[in-house]
């Protein structure tokens, strides 16, 4: 893990493309050459997706959310809470263009792969903390993404249960509780417990607005994020907050789908607008990457690790 501090520091993004940022990513070549994780998530069908350490979450709401997660470290209520962001690949249910993309997987395969990726983090985090609560946030629809696979994952109870049991086979569902802006999923077994708190963060006032690109500004999205966390904090301070967002640009790239554990962000710069989280240089955030490299060092678990 000594190489992680240097990973991505020499990455230079390409000049802005003539398409929306959430439609293209420029970090693929760097990750292909330098990735430290080199893991694979496999569905029951045999469908595979890469699991990598990302260096460029773009400049849309995913980049904004990673910046929001970084900012939590300065708030007393979140002292000691591990945070991180994972980009999830699109699947064929994501939208009309994705439906015709032969390199993408069906929704069921994507959910199983996502369960394995999340489980790899849960396994490490649940062994380090007594009675941990781990928050999973997802995003709703936006332009080009009518059915966000991250929202589908946190809404799919079977996938959440699978992630918990992949993390620790002795865990079984002990109950669910709906809060104002989140749902608690409690698991217990063999004298250990795990609680997953799930919530979907909207990017606009309505789904129609989101699909039309009439988004909230970044102040509103940050406020919505804190509002979603408030009822969870009232129950217990979480051990970790992991945010999930879809890398919709993978629809346009005919390569094997990939999950990216993001390591740095410049925040929100969409359509020539600098949001509240915009920065000129990358801000580094390696907490979750270290968790996945810890899983790699163990060499077993929900993911398959490739030779470097």
| Tally of separate helices | 9
Low-confidence parts, pLDDT < 50 over ≥5 residues? 18-24
By secondary-structure content and strand pairing, the structural class works out as: alpha/beta
**Strand order within the widest sheet?**
5-6-7-4-8-3-9-2-1-12
SSE series: HEEHEHHEHHEEEHHEEEEHE
Count of discrete domains: 1
Shape: globular
Distance between the termini: 13 Å
Radius of gyration: 18 Å
Binned strand content: 15-25%
What summary fits the major beta sheet?
10 strands, mixed
Helix content percent band: 25-40%
Whole-number average pLDDT?
A: 94
Key structural traits:
12 strands, two-stranded antiparallel ribbon, 308 residues, alpha/beta, single chain, ten-stranded mixed beta sheet
